[in-house]
Amino acid sequence: MLNSPLYVKRTLSDGKKIDVGILAENSSGSYFQYNAEYLSQHSNLSPFTLEFNDELQKAPRQPHYGVHGVFGDSLPDGWGLYLMDRVFRQNGIAPGTVSVLERLAYVGDRCSGSMSFEPQSHENEHNPKSTIIELGKEAIKEFEGDESQMVAQLATGAGSGGARPKLNITINNNLITTDINASGEKWLVKFTSEKFDLGHNESLVEAAYMEMAKDAQIEVPEFKLINVGDGTHWLRQKRFDCTEHGKIHMHSACGLLDASFREPSLDYVDLIKVANILCGTAAAKAVLDRALFNFLTVNQDDHTKNWAFLCGDDGKWQLSPFYDIVYSPSPYKQHMMSFNGEGCVIT
Asked: What is the chain's mean pLDDT, rounded?
C-alpha cells in the first residue's frame, strides 16, 4: 500500500502535462480529489461516475480493483497484467501484496489515453538495439509458456489491455523505437500465436474485418500488416489516443459506466444512450451501425472495454474508431453486449 499520494497528470494533445488531482489509499479503500486549478480550466474526465468538484471521492471496490473507472482504464489486463506480475516476481515481490495504486505507480506514463501517475515506481526498460521482430518473437515465446529474458522491456511496451500479446511503438522518419517518450507516430503491434483460436491467421482475419468495416462506412484506425515470414503476419494499428507530440483522453465504456468487461454487463441500448449524451445523434447512430456489424460478423467478444470515447483538450467528446473486431464466436453463442436484452438475436 502506498503511504503517500499518487499525483494524477494529464498530457494534452500538444504534449503539455497538467495536474489533474491526487489519489490516495488506506485500509478502507482508495480516494480521488480533483486539483482546484484543473476544475477551473478543464472538464470532467469521467462525467457519469466522478463529481466535478474538489471533494474527496471514494472509489467503488468493483469492477476496477478499487479505483474509479477513469483510472482503472489506465491499468493493463490480460497480457499487460501478466507481464507486470512477472516483473514483480523477478524483483522478489508477491503480486498479491501489490495494491492498485502501487500498480498505477508502476504503470506511470505508459498508460493508454492521456493519464499518467507520479512518482513512477519503475524505470521504463528500453533497448534501442532491439528490433520489433525480435521483441515480437520474445513476446510470443513468453505467451506460449517459454520464459523470455526480455520481460521488463516487453512490460514497458505492453501498457494496453487485452489478452493478446502486443507492443506499443513509435515511428519517426522510418526509425522504429519502443521509447514511449519519443516523438513520432504511435502504433500498436498485435502479435499472433498458435494458441489463438484462429492461430497465426488472427491478424489476417482482423485486417479483413477492418476492411469490411471500412466498406460499411465505419471508421477504423489506420492499419497495416507486417509480413514476418513463414506465412505469419502481425497487425500494426495506429493509436487513436495519441498525437505526434501528445495524447488524447480516452475512456472505455467499462470505465465510464463501471460496467465489468469480464461478464455481460451492458446493452447496446445503454451504449447508444451514452453516445447520444456525450457526442450527439451521429455517434449514437454509429454505435448502432457497429452493433449490427458485430452481430452479422459474429464478433461476440464485444465487451465494454472494446468501446471507447475520446475527449479533446476543449472538453468535447467523440466516439473512438472501431477496434478489436475479429471473428470471435462464444461457446455459449451469446454476445458480451446484449441487443435490447437479447444475447444472440436482434428483436
From this structure: 93
Residues 17 and 41 grouped into a single domain: yes
| Domain end call among 215, 238, 261 | 238
The residue segments making up the domain with residue 295 are 249-338
Contact, 264 vs 343, CB < 8 A? yes
Residue 229 pairs in a beta bridge with 232
pLDDT band with cut points at 50, 70 and 90 for residue 283: very high
| pLDDT tens profile 184-212 | 899 999 999 999 989 999 999 999 999 99
**Structural domain total, the chain:** 3
Task: Say whether both 148 and 76 belong to one domain.
Answer: no
In the numeric block, the cell 428483436 is attached to 347
Q: At a CB cut-off of 8 Å and minimum separation 6, what does 157 contact? A: 110, 135, 167, 168, 169, 178, 180
pLDDT band with cut points at 50, 70 and 90 for residue 125: low
